Amino acid sequence: MCADEAGAADAGARRRRRGGRAGGAARRPAVEQPPFRQYRLSYPPTPVVSTDELESVHESALQILEEIGVDILHDEARALLRDAGADVAANGGRVRFDRGLVEWAIRQAPSEFTLHARDPAKSLRIAGETTAFSSVASTPNCACLDHGRRAGNMADFETFIRLGQMLTAVQLWGGYPTEPADVHPSIRHLDALHAILTLSDKALHAYSLGETRNLDALEMVRLARGIDAATLDREPSIYTVINASSPLRLDGPMLAGALAFARHNQPVVLTPFTLAGAMAPVTIAGAVAQQNAEALAGLVVTQVARPGAPFVYGGFTSNVDMKSGAPAFGTPEFMKATLLGGQLARRYGLPYRASNVNAANALDAQAAYESVFSLWAAVQGGANLLFHGAGWMEGGLCASFEKMVLDADLLGMVGAFLTPLQTDADGLALSAVREVGPGGHYFGTAHTRARYKTAFFGPMISDWRNNEAWAEAGRPEALNRAHAIYKALIAGYEQPPMDPAIAEALAAFVARRKREGGAPTDF
Amino acid sequence: MCADEAGAADAGARRRRRGGRAGGAARRPAVEQPPFRQYRLSYPPTPVVSTDELESVHESALQILEEIGVDILHDEARALLRDAGADVAANGGRVRFDRGLVEWAIRQAPSEFTLHARDPAKSLRIAGETTAFSSVASTPNCACLDHGRRAGNMADFETFIRLGQMLTAVQLWGGYPTEPADVHPSIRHLDALHAILTLSDKALHAYSLGETRNLDALEMVRLARGIDAATLDREPSIYTVINASSPLRLDGPMLAGALAFARHNQPVVLTPFTLAGAMAPVTIAGAVAQQNAEALAGLVVTQVARPGAPFVYGGFTSNVDMKSGAPAFGTPEFMKATLLGGQLARRYGLPYRASNVNAANALDAQAAYESVFSLWAAVQGGANLLFHGAGWMEGGLCASFEKMVLDADLLGMVGAFLTPLQTDADGLALSAVREVGPGGHYFGTAHTRARYKTAFFGPMISDWRNNEAWAEAGRPEALNRAHAIYKALIAGYEQPPMDPAIAEALAAFVARRKREGGAPTDF
User: Fold this and answer.
1) Residues in chain B within 8 Å Cβ distance of A455
2) Which one of A170, B42, B175, B230 is CB 3.0 to 4.6 Å from B137, fit for a cystine?
3) What is the pTM of this model?
């Protein structure tokens, strides 16, 4: 396992280490990072279409819901929808939604909520004015520079949890960073959530794969937070992302989990996976109209289950390579779809989820440019929850330890970008300009000296040395620096404290549920 | 020279080649690119400060100009300013500008103009609603994957011109892509401009290094376009970028060139190089206030020389690494400064110049993320002229052939992002959704088939193959793919036609001016 190796930090990490006599000075972190904090979306979001055009996308989605309908592949969900006045076909799963029901559901869902973490300092607002950054999720493979690419497994999973716990820019978990495929599916959720809850104190996610797993997850997070069921019901503490099986279909296991969470007042993020040209129309407006219909259908399901249950509108429309059919991410089409999804979510007063994605096979320039294009769209689109924020590669088929570090650095830069400029007298610095005057320099002025340590964001990875110094250091590239930082962070990992009684109760629950056989795998 | 080698295209380029029987089908380009075209800034620019805060930055700049002043190191410029009512010190270069004079100059300068290219189809609007992408400029070194890093020289310079001529996203020249340092400074401008004017038909730039060079440039572009002096005076056909010698100083050789161009109605781009913490206050608002004072001082100089002369407001404020003093680019501070510069330029009704920059030593993830952060700021900041658009590395100390290709691809993506979504009935695709229905797929529908070839931007470099196929192809990274495309483009280079009489007149002018000794080098 990569995590078990002693990491030899290269110059990129070393130069950020502070000195300290052996056994003497207080321990300093091996890697300097900004503190854990949520950022406000300080700038107005960018509209990609006019208000009239937005209405036509909204109208198109309503028409899809009314005329074509959505397959809701879950008996109980259909029964709830029938009771609420939806047109539910006698045979098959087709449900048609009239606009009154959709508009009712939009009014029920809250525009914001707090997602509580085990460490209260790491609880997050999911709201119109803020953004929150999650880890990568749901990759079948993982990779690091030392050991290459391999299938997801529990040891690497735990290393990702340790790494994400150490990275301040990873603010919550977005599911399993890599699938621990070596743990049997019946008990995987128990071991995986137990690892997240004990190795980390950040807010977390549970997969919706039938009701049992979600109920197990609710109990585990209740135990871990040391709260009673009524408090859990007041305080959203775990969320689930469900996808539509596009086009226009919501499947049974996901709906079962979503219903369980909605009924317990836990957030459901509904993200249609609408690849334009494959599972959705080849035109982006059409693909997003379909995305919108699917998201609104899911919204209605959660709101008929429990009016007011927290819900997040997820946008994930991208395009395929029309030569090969391969999905593409971080493309211009993805960017426009992300902006349009944000406009729709704001129209509905719902929190918005976007993603930090790419389709690169290596942590090269492509991985970086597709990721930053994604971040551009997420920030300008007003994303309140950035999913796959750190570690995603290969269109979601692989999680990379080095990419998690690199993305955390990108997220730190985004956070610094979102931090407003200081424009008071100190910020305008007229007195410093007066002091220095034409032809002078600012290095030595009092204004500079008082601020130089904190004036600028200090990235972990960016190497700004001149070419000679860089060549002398062995020409490290961003991948090498990210690797060294990953190793240094794992070497310095500290498990967050947990009350022993809570730890015992949690372990006992997991042991009991394993004895009982875990959860069904026949979905 | 890299350019002289036969390029063996790797899979990345090869898969974009179209088949064709030997000696049969018409010749197709080796690399598919979007056509040459300017993009509209379709989305509203992002304000980084409120209107009140913007006014305080503007006010601070006016106070700097009134109270502190700017050193104008050119006798004639000072005389013009004195005649216009500025407060010109009897000794030394200090000039103080009252706000009335500044506001007068702001009113004189046009909000937009056309920059004419030798090929009229490549003339560009420099205006509030459009953006134009330039090549890299002014690097002392250059590099390619085959031959590594070397000092700028005329052979590599010419290869850059050929490459930029072939890249449709490189819309105009931004100066010398790399400095042809092996040509004597007295005649360098003659050889370099002659190469640009004959190897390319795109709009171009001349350096301001004393009046003589600029007058030579005017005559060369007049000859190359085959126009008379009066037409040249009506039609801006060559531009110059001058920097302030920050803080608050405009030097003699640059002012001499700027005056020559302004008097002939050719555009002057004034770009203060205000590194926060070094040549400007450590606070970004303070650095931009100083930038603004310097830009407005330059504006006044051009407008007293010729009221109405085209002028572009340049923003280039970035920060330094406060540990080493090294300049940094594409940082969060750079982004905010770029947005703020755009707000100021719009306040003044002046076209805005921003840049595509990074400080990386390798074409790695850092080069890409810093570049895309720069592009994010430029687009959202409303840049009408993107300088250093393609090829910049190492904070401007090196131009890279592969980076020029990669950046051209990024610019293509930006252009596709700026292309508005289609939201009419065809775009909304309701009939296709109806046809496919829940659970279907769109690959085979008529709506998809009619559009799949043109629905999405096709990048040159992005490799979206799955991991297995990519590994089988030898794990090419973005750098390798960019290299192959560079080689393929140079192999397919075609010199744009030029009337033989014009070519002869241009060559005769260069030969005569060389015989005369070129231009002084004693600045």
Assistant:
1) 276-277, 282-283, 319, 322, 333
2) B175
3) 0.95
